[in-house]
């Protein structure tokens, strides 16, 4: 599946977002190793903290559907932004946890612009499970 096809799926699911507070819809399409695509959109909450971004919705949905971490080939994210959308810090951390460092990430906007990056490029120096085990768990 090409980047543009994945972005088109993210654009479709973006319309399902629940954003009564920000009116800022975001869609994501996560491609698994077996070709299955897991869709996600942002879902807001009046308390703000429980809000979930599109990227995390797609990733958590895939995990809930039985896919293993690191079994994904690419993710596309789209929003109505001036330039290609950029994932928040929390989503970047979750991408690091559940995806391979070299996995392609396609960032797009409604004007059709997109850039390709990788999980590792989005969060250099990421905190990983290696950080938890390097000291034997003692702090």
Question: How would you summarize the topology of this molecule?
Answer:
Layout: H1 3-14, E1 26-32, E2 37-41, H2 54-64, E3 72-79, H3 89-98, E4 104-109, E5 114-118, H4 119-122, H5 129-133
Parallel strand pairs: 3-4
Antiparallel strand pairs: 1-2, 1-3, 4-5
Verbal overview:
- This protein has 139 residues and is of the alpha+beta class.
- It has one domain (3-124): Cytidine Deaminase, domain 2 (3-Layer(aba) Sandwich), CATH 3.40.140.
- 30% of the residues lie in helices and 22% in strands.
- It has five helices and five strands.
- Strands 2-1-3-4-5 form a five-stranded mixed sheet.
- The longest helix has 12 residues, at 3-14.
- The protein starts with a helix and ends in a 6-residue tail after the last helix.
- The relative contact order is 0.16.
- The model has no long low-confidence stretch (mean pLDDT 95).
- Pfam families: dCMP_cyt_deam_1.
- Keywords: Hydrolase, Metal-binding, Zinc.
Descriptive keywords:
single chain, alpha+beta, five-stranded mixed β-sheet, Cytidine Deaminase, domain 2, 5 strands, 139 residues
Please write the string of helix (H) and strand (E) elements: HEEHEHEEHH
Biggest sheet descriptor = 5 strands, mixed
CATH topology: Cytidine Deaminase, domain 2
Number of strands: 5
Protein name: Cytidine deaminase
Catalytic activity: cytidine + H2O + H(+) = uridine + NH4(+); 2'-deoxycytidine + H2O + H(+) = 2'-deoxyuridine + NH4(+)
GO molecular function, one term: zinc ion binding
Enzyme class: hydrolase
């Amino acid at each position: 599946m090409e980047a543009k096809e994945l972005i088109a799926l993210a654009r479709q699911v973006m319309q399902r977002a629940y954003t009564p507070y920000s009116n800022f819809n975001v869609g994501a399409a996560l491609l698994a190793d077996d070709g299955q695509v897991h869709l996600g959109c942002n879902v807001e909450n009046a308390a703000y903290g429980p809000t979930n971004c599109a990227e995390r919705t797609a990733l958590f949905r895939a995990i809930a559907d039985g896919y293993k971490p690191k079994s994904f080939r690419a993710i596309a994210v789209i929003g109505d932004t001036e330039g290609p959308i950029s994932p928040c810090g929390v989503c970047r951390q979750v991408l690091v946890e559940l995806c391979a460092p070299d996995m392609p990430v396609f960032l797009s906007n409604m004007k059709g612009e997109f850039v390709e990056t990788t999980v590792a490029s989005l969060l250099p120096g990421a905190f990983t499970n290696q950080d938890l085990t390097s000291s034997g768990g003692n702090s």
